[in-house]
Every structure is written in structure tokens, then in C-alpha cells.
């Protein structure tokens, strides 16, 4: 009788469905469209795997990881945030790679008159940029405006966004006269915003990626990172306007 019970228990145990594999990717807000497609393609090539994606400004994402959020891959929109991740030991520095580049652009609502020079935005009532304290796009914008000797002059006109996508939305809805976002973001709402110019005067907009140490699936995290760097992954990124690192 005991043998029968044991046998039935074993059958029941091995009849249980296998727990589906899961992993989490935290990426900068500007990666939303590209990484959503990459997630879908990666899941299709890994049967039974569910990839959870979390998008926000890079600094808040880093803070979540530092507080113990179970993240397997972290992709930032700037090197400074990834440097902090390495320093706080929440990513494996040996896995850190640069995977994409972007441009900072000045946008205006669709149909609005485009300024001929960056200095012309001094005449605008509202100019949106990401908050430099937490948004990489905001730090690039501050550097560019500082180089152009406009940052101090624009203080009363600046509207700070919590992410580059929020800045994009402000301009698309006509709530501000202009904004500084990434070229890839402007491309997503090309029918609602016009690019006035590419803006320089800042460090290159370079995106690093690394396997996080707080996740439960580092092996799959490394595979996802490799996929992003692969020709197929780079093709998807190029589709959304990113250039190779």
C-alpha cells in the first residue's frame, strides 16, 4: 500500500506543469518601442519564457534596482547612470556593453514655425526638457543649452518632464512651444511634432546595457543582452531610429 501511495505521489509530482521561465528587463523610456518589439521576438525564440519590461527614466530605474527590484537586464540612456549601477554593484561590470546611439533634437508642435537657430527659443514662453536630476535626456539638454549660453536665460521658461516621453507628449499636445528630446522619440510621433534641428554641445548619446545582479535569471539576461547586440537586434533598433554604437 505504501509503495502504491509513493508511486501515485511521484506521478502527481511529475505531472505538475513546469513553472514558466520569467525575466525582467528595465530600460530607459526612449527604448520603449524598440525593446517592446525585441521582447516579443525574444519570447518567440524561447518557448515558455515571459519577458517583463519596465520603462522609465534611467535614474528611477536604477533606484528600483538598488532597492532590490528583481531585474535581470538594465539598459540606460547614458553612461553616468550605468557608472552608478556598477559602483553600487547592482550590475555585472563584465557584461556591460554599448548597444546604441541617438541624437538630441529640438522639436516643435506639428505645423508650428521652426526656429532657424537654437538661440531663437529665448522668445518662447515654454520650453520642455527632461529633469536633469533624473532624466538623461534632460542632462544632455542642460549641457547643450549651457554650451549655447541659454540655460540660465531660460530658467523661467523651462518645463521639466519626468521622462523624455513626457517632454514629447507636452510638445505633441501643444502645451509647450518647443522641447528637447531624442530623435527616436520624435520619430514615434512624426505626425504631431516637427524636428527643427539636431542639437549638439553635449556628450554623445550612448546607451549601455548590462546584466543586473538582483534578478533571478542571469543566464537568460545574458542571452537577451546578446540578442540586443546581434544583427537581428540591431536591425530592430535601426528600425526605430537608433544608430550602432
TrEMBL record:
Alphabetical keyword list: Metal-binding, Molybdenum, Signal
GO MF term (any one): tungstate binding
InterPro entries: ModA, ModA/WtpA
Biological processes per GO annotation: molybdate ion transport
Record has Methyltransferase as a keyword: no
Recorded superkingdom: Bacteria
Binding-site list for molybdate: 30, 58, 137, 164, 182
Signal peptide span: 1-20
Pfam families: SBP_bac_11
Similarity field: Belongs to the bacterial solute-binding protein ModA family.
PANTHER family: MOLYBDATE-BINDING PERIPLASMIC PROTEIN (PTHR30632), SULFATE-BINDING PROTEIN (PTHR30632:SF0)
Description of how the protein assembles with itself and partners: The complex is composed of two ATP-binding proteins (ModC), two transmembrane proteins (ModB) and a solute-binding protein (ModA).
Name by which UniProt lists this protein: Molybdate transport system substrate-binding protein
Organism: Desulfovibrio legallii
